[in-house]
Amino acid sequence: MSGKVAISLTVNGETIEALVAPRTTLADFLRQDIQLTGTHTGCEMGVCGACLVLLDDRPVHACLMFAVQADGCAVETIEGLTHRRAIDDLQKVFHERNALQCGFCTPGMLVSAYGILASGGEPDRDGIRDALSGNYCRCTGYEAIVDAIEMTARQRRQHREEEA
Amino acid sequence: MKARAFDYMRPKCVQEALEAFASADGDASYIAGGQSLVPALALRLQAPGLLIDIARLDELRGLSIVDGHLRIGATTRHCEILGSNLVREHAPLLAKAAPFVAHPAIRNKGTFGGSLALADPASEFPAMALALDAIIEIASVEGSRRVGAGDFFIDLYETALQPGEIITAVHVPVATVKTRTAFDELARRRGDYAIVGAGIDAQMQGGFVERMRIAFLSVGPTPVRVSAVEAALTGRQLTPEAIRQAQDVLGTELDPAGDEHTPPKMRRHLARVLLGRLLGRLEANV
Question: Which domains does chain A carry?
Fold first, then answer.
């Protein structure tokens, strides 16, 4: 039993064909099989949020699914978001506002923030905190992280208004 | 921790899934959203030899109105419940409870049927299935059967589901012009498990309660209907006095367990507070 299974998925826009053991989580697959180590593994039980990736454009825990379940899906990691410059503004404001200390939670925070801002609205601080409730920062940098996301949302709105 | 090695299959239809389970000699598990199962596998609380992935079966998907009920396909994800106009219109109680379910990333993967099948007494949707008197449609190799939510939740993580059975859909009676609903919970932080939570589905006419169902979560080994409280309010207006009396009845009817942070007395007190708030909202119709 437990032979490897052939899967085909896109990761950051690139089609990947691979053989995986069913027990391999998506997080381990990304980190170990295709060396995308920006996806961090913390609790490995869906609590800390360090492993968040986009699955078909929605944030999910890469530790809470097996790579075989992602067969046929589109996965985007922090590397992909960075490379296609989807979160340039967020990353800049995180930097400026010191919204990270050790940086371990940051990829997950940015993926969550991407999800929060994807709807195009301008969430209030309570809404941001609520949406970040599944992301742990053990350096206790939440205030700055909420600031950074709030500021990015405001900047994006101003940008839209200027374009309109 | 990592899951034990297992085989994985993705059946084409419910029948194939049922047959695969039957051939596995009990050493199999269905996986849909996996948001509770995967941690359980990682912690080796469960270690099945075969995972049968039912997440993509069309038969288990979709939201629709069928025979005066909202049919919620079992693999409807929490985020779909949250974003659905159909749910907001026809099952407003579910729409109100959905934002309280876990975190956004969990809601993007976790399924409605999975939540009911797990029957975590601290989960929102099992309790709301009870408050809505939902009907749970179950498939087995013998055929299909329907179980009312009142008969579905038996004990801690124990339901009417027999080994190998699959929840295919949940049917919720659609709201009427008389329907009033309220949901809330008390938790230390948003997204955390609630210390206590409750939902109410009522039929109100001219300020009088025609029928009311109230279900609590996090107060025992299963979600709990409080029928004595419901009876105490039926036929009445939700005056401050009626609400106070209902809270007193609740104090005698609920027998919550304690834990290291929350002694039973505190949980009972918080349940009373919560009931008062919810009834107040029903009265104000907000």
Answer: 5-80 (3.10.20.30), 87-163 (1.10.150.120)
